[in-house]
Design a protein that fits this description.
This protein is an alpha/beta fold and 557 residues long. The chain contains 13 helices and 27 strands. The chain has a 7-stranded mixed beta sheet with strand order 12-25-26-27-23-24-13. The two termini are 29 Å apart. It is an enzyme of class 6 (ligase). It comes from Paenibacillus hodogayensis.
């Protein structure tokens, strides 16, 4: 692509940044940052923000920072911070040595607050939370000035020093910016800069009694690190004037610039951390790594690959507004990633016993089966075959309907990689009438790979040798949520899809999966893509999660 065509292809935030950089906006290298609060686990919406900041930095030969917004000791802990670092590396967006903590800048942020007080741009306010909300006004009515707004600089400095020293109880005083209570932008109505919190911080312990608000700490942290672009989602657009006010009042040269991109949502899932916490803490799901959740931990445990998630993020491109993307696109990217990578194996989820009556008694043999029909480079493997096997119960129909080309009385099918078999008899439970066993014969001349060119059959079914089959539990996943509004009261019982998880016990898999490692991925012939569950697999009892079925609904749209 020529430079001109490349430029013409850019849209949105990339075009804007290129224009500003080429106009000489900064005398330093490009730097972006992802600033998560360590109070939960990353989800797919966070991954989009990470992707945007990382790829913008890469596009303009810049540096990408991970910086924790750890300025609220009531919600944050080291577990979340460590998990975020691990997830970021797993996803493939490595910040290298550029991992920072907002709490390391506490002294600089506090000095910035003192500087604003000295310039008459900040004051200590005694209004309580309810009074503060009342004085703030509404979207249609202006706010009212606090009765403490006109305290002298000296009094404010003394009171703020007392806040810092722990002289006042939590929530009794706050530091506010002095901007404009009549502003149509409610974020500029003397916003809170600092509050008193009586809690131990996971990194600084009891060193601090006051903690800055995100809107105050964020631009200062960006300035300290030399960030050029603070790229954030669209809901922060109304916060941009406050971001710029802070940097301007602190007289920061070549201040960072906040620019916004769209917010990503997926159909059938919630990406609000508040709602995710309700699902986890309410016991509606197993935890933050439940494979039904859109957390990166959940996607990873279910079996999604980092490449498939990055491919999905690249496919949707730059979003300018709040956008909901069909989750079928994510599934499509997963299939595209795995179709030439995953080993295809035979798994019988609901077994039906088949006895091949004319097979040599006690005999067995190995048959050769390709590991991946899409990729010959993955080679072939030997699979044990014997006179007693199991097939899928759905692969037999006593009274076949038109178009059914699998096994039925007096009909022939090919066993994948093995022989033609013909059903001679269906054995039933005399009490229930259920079919418990099929008795079949095989044609030894029809073995796959021997050059047999005789009669043809329309159906091929998979199987597992009774002697060598490996037992496993299979977890089949569908969308977690039913269609409808998200409950605002935290009660999710009527919103959870009762079929979001179906556990199939007693499945039989071919022995090649016996040594499957955690998160190792396979294609189960005709069933979809599956991954070994990193949590449920205990000892020799295997457990697999279906990542996605084989049918690709995205291609049908």
């Amino acid at each position: 692509m020529t430079r001109e065509n490349e430029y013409a292809a850019e849209t949105g935030i990339y075009r804007l940044i290129r224009d500003e950089l080429e106009a000489g906006a900064f005398g330093r290298d490009m730097r972006t940052r992802f600033p998560p609060e360590p109070n939960g686990y990353l989800h797919i919406g966070n991954a989009y923000a990470i992707h945007t900041n990382y790829t913008v930095a890469q596009t303009f030969n810049g540096t990408f920072h991970l910086r924790f917004d750890d300025t609220n000791p009531l919600k944050e802990n080291a577990e979340y911070a460590n998990a975020i670092i691990e997830d970021l590396h797993w996803l493939g967006y490595d910040p290298g040595g550029h991992i920072y903590y907002g709490s390391d800048y506490s002294e600089q942020i506090c000095r910035a607050a003192v500087f604003l007080i000295e310039r008459g741009k900040a004051y200590v306010c005694d209004l309580g939370p309810e009074e503060l909300a009342e004085y703030r006004g509404t979207l249609t009515e202006p706010g009212r000035e606090s009765p403490y707004r006109n305290r002298s600089v000296e009094e404010n400095l003394e009171l703020f020093a007392g806040m810092k020293q722990g002289a006042y109880p939590a929530s009794s005083k706050i530091l506010r910016a002095k901007i404009d209570m009549g502003s149509p932008n409610i974020n500029l109505r003397d916003p809170v800069l600092y509050r008193i919190i009586d809690a131990e911080h996971y990194r600084t312990g009891r060193q601090w009694n006051i903690y800055p608000m995100y809107d105050f700490a964020h631009p200062i942290q960006d300035a300290i690190e030399g960030i050029t672009y603070s790229l954030c989602s669209i809901e922060f657009k109304d916060h941009r004037p406050l971001y710029e006010w802070v940097l301007n009042e602190l007289q920061i040269p070549e201040p960072p610039r906040q620019r916004e991109f769209g917010r990503l949502s997926l159909t059938g899932v919630v990406t609000s951390k508040r709602f995710l916490r309700q699902l986890v803490e309410g016991g509606y799901v197993e935890g933050w790594d439940d494979p039904r959740l859109p957390t990166l931990r959940g996607f990873r445990r279910r079996g999604f690959t980092p490449d498939s998630i990055r491919g999905f993020l690249e496919e949707i491109g730059t979003i300018r507004t709040r956008s909901t993307v069909d989750i079928a696109l994510l599934d499509h990217c997963l299939r595209q990633d795995l179709k030439r990578k995953a080993m295809s194996v035979m798994a019988v989820l609901r077994p039906l016993k088949v006895v091949i009556t004319n097979y040599p008694e006690g005999g067995s043999e190995l048959v050769r089966i390709e590991n991946n029909a899409e990729n010959e480079e993955l080679g072939k493997r030997d699979v044990p075959f014997s006179g007693t096997i199991y097939i899928e119960r759905d692969d037999f129909m006593e009274h076949p309907v038109p178009g059914f080309h699998r096994l039925s009385p007096n009909a022939e099918v090919r066993l994948k990689g093995a022989y033609f078999i013909k059903c001679e008899e269906a054995v039933k439970d005399p009490a229930t009438g259920d079919i418990t066993e099929l008795r079949c014969t095989y044609d030894p001349q029809t073995k796959s790979g021997t050059g047999f060119t005789g009669r043809k059959v329309k159906g091929t079914i998979h199987w597992v040798s009774a002697e060598n089959g490996v037992k496993a539990d299979i977890h089949l996943y569908e969308k977690l949520l039913l269609e409808g509004d998200i409950p605002q009261d935290g009660s999710w019982s009527d919103t959870i899809n009762p079929d979001s998880l179906i556990v199939v016990g007693g499945a039989l898999l071919e022995p090649s999966v016996q040594q499957a490692g955690p998160e190792q991925r396979f294609q189960f012939f005709r069933h979809g893509y599956f991954a070994a569950d990193s949590v449920r697999t205990v000892g020799e009892r295997l457990s697999f999660n279906r990542i996605v079925p084989l049918k690709d609904s995205w291609n049908k749209k």
